[in-house]
């Protein structure tokens, strides 16, 4: 069961965050845990459902809904931007919630009933649940990377159908058996079944969907393709015949002119952060860069350029002896160098594709934090310059760059910056130099700063007197706090402890009248992420938690307040720690996909083992172990991982597992220990735990937005501390 359930969370998050946008990241997590918990509550409410002979039926229904759920939702044509302006769209959204939570609901009934009937064996059962979930993480990611996401989504229904087959009476076994055959029959049609119709600007001539990205190649012309990542980002790719000496008039390039910047040095070492479809690399080759590092975090993009679909189209460019192809997170890669690069080029590296990444995230990244700019500054040669453009982050990033140089004791950081505005492109460009920037550099770096070009290209820092009150100039000269008054978006610094560059919305910009025109991003200051989390919290607080209080009104044996609060607290605590660790260790590992798999697998595997051995430990020992390890993580492990960043990614993964496994071992003990106290009332405890898990996984992001990861982890530790006090009490948790 658990292999299927955890894999569905991963797969559905990947699918729907790419097809609908990143708002689905938290929605799928919430629906999954909520569905499991409500299934458990149904076992408590309706005694006739407490029948072991029905487990196979619950599992079969779960498998059927898991099979048809994605296809149904994708055909509803849900549009989040119309959610508050169209009653029909709101109805579609509610139907989506029902469809996607139903599989988890029936699965929750089966799982809870097993826990209830065999509550004295809870340590072993909970171990199987957690280890199965850990294996499900690995299976889902491996299958996505080998047979693609759509086929994996169908195939992952087989484990729960196999569980139904094991539990079914003799003749009823034909039902899950036939359904399993149907799954196998449908596999060749997976890409057609799990597909959202959309009008593409250009015809799509190639597609690939793995654990990292949904990649499409669209043909914009005979010599010009677009690589579309997660239906959000567009990376240009130009046809190249291998001739680098052709006249400038025949060269097709994208991005910004590099002739002046590359020509400043006799031998230019060029770093492309987010090389995408190779346009920046081709630009650097044309202008004579002698060493080019093409860094891209999406593995299949690099594969297409080196050996796959785009190899011949781009003239085998990535096999040029001057090009070094690197599949790595840009931040993880740049930290390996000191005084190396003459140019660090970041052309919209963090785009909507990052927002669509999903999986327990709300677009946090470590490319644009204060510490990231420290790394960029160190990695630049003595004459190095970083060029960074973005649609809407630049005001915040200027602040981060200044803070970084101040921390590095760079005198007068403002002299190392120049910022340009491209109104026609809807973008801004920031230059950060290792040495104080000379006037000739910022005047000649890109385009001619003339009055004729002013409508399309202008410098805003160092600013002419005529526009000295622009936002960038205010940030540089007076600091972000002063400039914040005139800014609709959040300008506060992003750090590795609070890396939410994309969360720019502020509550002061929330107006009910704007709900009808809300867009799935925050560059105008509308607090979409905070609003989404608040809505989930309101639903949990006003609907789900009261439902979990109803059994108090029923006659017969029931939990008392202590028992109810215990399961509530450990639910909040477990998900708080899990979600924050996934985000926190992404910085160390680099790839968000690898970090997600490593943390979740390690935590669940160790928790399963901890559950098995839970009876051998005193009641408070697991909680003390958890709290102590979290304190170590907050105070010590950050310094340790900082010293080990030069390890290869396999080494970083291994170190992360070593740091997570002891914590997971103890985190697997509170639930079975609580179950042994409440016996058959575990169905209610499981439901309360599920509701609290949703509450914890969402509310903790508000804590992280405002106070950072360290405070968020301490919050999780405090919840475990309160649960320990309840466990330590000798008072019973059951009343008549």
TrEMBL record:
Key words, A-Z: Membrane, Transmembrane, Transmembrane helix
Membrane-crossing residue ranges in chain numbering: 20-43, 55-73, 93-115, 127-147, 531-552, 564-582, 594-614, 620-641, 653-672, 684-704, 711-727
One Pfam assignment: Spermine_synth
Annotated protein name in UniProt: Spermine/spermidine synthase
Origin species: Prolixibacter denitrificans
Organism lineage: Bacteria, Pseudomonadati, Bacteroidota, Bacteroidia, Marinilabiliales
């Amino acid at each position: 069961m658990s292999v299927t359930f955890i894999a569905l969370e991963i797969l559905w998050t990947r699918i729907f965050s790419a097809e609908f946008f990143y708002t689905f990241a938290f929605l799928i997590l919430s629906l999954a845990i909520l569905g499991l918990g409500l299934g458990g509550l149904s076992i408590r409410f309706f005694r006739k459902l407490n029948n072991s002979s029905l487990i196979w039926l619950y599992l079969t229904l779960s498998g059927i809904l898991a099979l048809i759920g994605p296809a149904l939702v994708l055909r509803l044509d849900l549009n989040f931007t119309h959610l508050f302006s169209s009653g029909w769209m709101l109805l579609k959204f509610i139907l989506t919630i029902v469809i996607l939570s139903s599989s988890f609901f029936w699965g929750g009934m089966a799982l809870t009933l097993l826990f209830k009937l065999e509550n004295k064996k809870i340590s072993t059962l909970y171990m199987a649940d957690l280890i199965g979930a850990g294996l499900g993480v690995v299976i889902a990611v491996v299958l996505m990377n080998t047979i693609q996401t759509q086929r994996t989504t169908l195939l992952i229904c087989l484990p729960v159908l196999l569980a139904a087959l094991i539990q079914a009476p003799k003749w009823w076994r034909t039902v899950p058996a036939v359904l399993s055959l149907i799954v196998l029959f449908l596999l060749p049609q997976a890409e057609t079944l799990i597909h959202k119709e959309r009008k593409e600007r250009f015809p799509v001539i190639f597609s690939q969907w793995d654990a990292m990205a949904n990649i499409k190649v669209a043909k914009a012309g005979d010599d010009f393709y677009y690589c579309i990542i997660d239906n959000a980002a567009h990376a240009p790719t130009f046809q190249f015949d291998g001739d680098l000496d052709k006249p400038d008039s025949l060269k097709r390039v994208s991005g910004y002119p590099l002739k002046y910047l590359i020509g400043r040095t006799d031998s230019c070492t060029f770093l492309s952060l987010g090389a995408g479809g190779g346009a920046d690399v081709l630009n650097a080759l044309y202008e004579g860069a002698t060493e080019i590092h093409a860094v891209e975090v999406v593995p299949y993009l690099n594969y297409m350029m080196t050996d796959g679909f785009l190899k011949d189209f781009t003239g085998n460019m990535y096999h040029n002896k001057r090009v070094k192809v690197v599949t790595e997170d840009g931040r993880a890669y740049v930290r390996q160098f000191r005084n190396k690069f003459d140019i660090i080029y970041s052309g919209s590296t963090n785009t909507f594709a990052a927002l669509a990444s999903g999986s327990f995230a709300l677009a946090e990244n470590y490319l644009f934090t204060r510490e990231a700019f420290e790394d960029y500054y160190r990695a630049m040669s003595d004459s190095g310059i970083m060029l960074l453009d973005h649609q809407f982050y630049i005001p915040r990033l200027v602040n981060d760059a200044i803070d970084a140089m101040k921390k590095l004791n760079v005198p007068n950081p403002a002299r190392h910056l120049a910022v340009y505005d491209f109104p026609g492109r809807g973008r801004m460009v920031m230059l950060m130099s290792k040495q104080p920037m000379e006037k000739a550099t910022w005047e000649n770096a890109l385009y001619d700063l003339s009055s004729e070009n002013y409508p399309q290209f202008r410098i805003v820092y160092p600013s002419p007197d005529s526009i000295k009150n622009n936002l960038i100039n205010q940030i540089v000269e007076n600091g972000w706090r002063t400039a914040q008054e005139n800014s609709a978006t959040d300008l506060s610094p992003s750090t590795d402890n609070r890396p939410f560059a994309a969360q720019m919305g502020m509550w002061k910009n929330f107006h009910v009248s704007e709900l009808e025109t809300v867009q799935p991003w925050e560059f105008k200051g509308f607090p979409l992420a905070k609003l989404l989390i608040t809505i989930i919290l309101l639903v949990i607080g006003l609907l789900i938690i009261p439902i979990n209080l109803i059994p108090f009104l029923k006659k017969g044996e029931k939990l008392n307040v202590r028992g109810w609060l215990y399961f509530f607290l450990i639910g909040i605590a477990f998900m708080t720690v899990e979600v924050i660790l996934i985000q926190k260790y992404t910085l160390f590992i680099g790839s968000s996909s690898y970090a997600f798999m490593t943390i979740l697998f390690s935590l669940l595997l160790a928790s399963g083992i901890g559950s098995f051995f839970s009876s051998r430990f005193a009641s408070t020992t697991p909680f003390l172990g958890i709290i102590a390890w979290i304190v170590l993580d907050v105070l010590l492990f950050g310094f340790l991982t900082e010293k080990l960043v030069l390890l290869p990614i396999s080494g970083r993964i291994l170190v992360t597992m070593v740091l997570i496994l002891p914590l997971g071992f103890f985190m697997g003990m509170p639930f079975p220990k609580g179950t042994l106290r409440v016996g058959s009332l575990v169905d209610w405890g499981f439901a309360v735990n599920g509701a609290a898990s949703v509450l914890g996984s969402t509310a903790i992001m508000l804590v992280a937005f405002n106070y950072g990861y360290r405070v968020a982890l301490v919050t999780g530790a405090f919840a475990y501390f309160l649960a320990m006090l309840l466990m330590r009490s000798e008072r019973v948790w059951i009343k008549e």
